[in-house]
Amino acid sequence: MEIRLDGKVALVTGASRGIGRAIALEFARSGADVAVNYNKGSEKAEEVCREIRKMGRHCIAVQADVANAGQAAKMVESVIREFNGRLDILVNNAGIYPFTEAVKMSDEEFHRVIDTNLKGAFFVTRTAAQAMIARGRGGRVIGIASGAGHSGRFGQTHYCSSKAGLRLQCMAFAIELAAHGINVNSISVGYVDTGQFDTPELKDMKEFILKKILLRKAGQPEDIANLAVFLASEKADWITGADFRVDGGESAGRIPD
To answer: Which strand (E) or helix (H) includes residue 11?
Structure first.
């Protein structure tokens, strides 16, 4: 089954690396023009754009801290201007996941995670939805949630809270936007290898984590991108308000060692 996004314009937040980068590239391979959002480090965002332009698609890199409501709104507005009034697909991928035990967590760190992962998605979706409604052609919104939004994790109270909130935020948006032909879904991502296993917090836990996954391997960013393309396409016209757990079978339960 070939899935195409020809003629569509997509905005992917946090798209300079990892899952966001993979989604932006896969959208372009499927025929979409893409706006690549980044907060810091324009070089990596421009690298993604260069790859997309080589595919013959239009691409811009747009800086914004999604946790700032004003910046989030201006980003969406600038994308719509650049693409002649078009914005068909939004992927809320921007997120941070620091590790700190709750009893040692500062107010600032807690707020920073909630502001970026949860409030940021709301700010971007609000402005994007307003534009999609005004245009009257429907649209797609995809939230990149996490398995951490379904169960607790040590050292990630703030992250778990933000991702559980994002999943339900997507469902609430789905209810409000259905009448306008805007489908909203989320993808609850498992352990995808985006370099986090090289961090001090996880490098010693890799073997333990992989044993929890039925397929005994971490996912790749492309595994998430493939589903995002489907959800952004016309093939997913009757899917909204859903959450998809893509985690190599981790959420299904464990098999004997």
So the answer is: strand 9-12
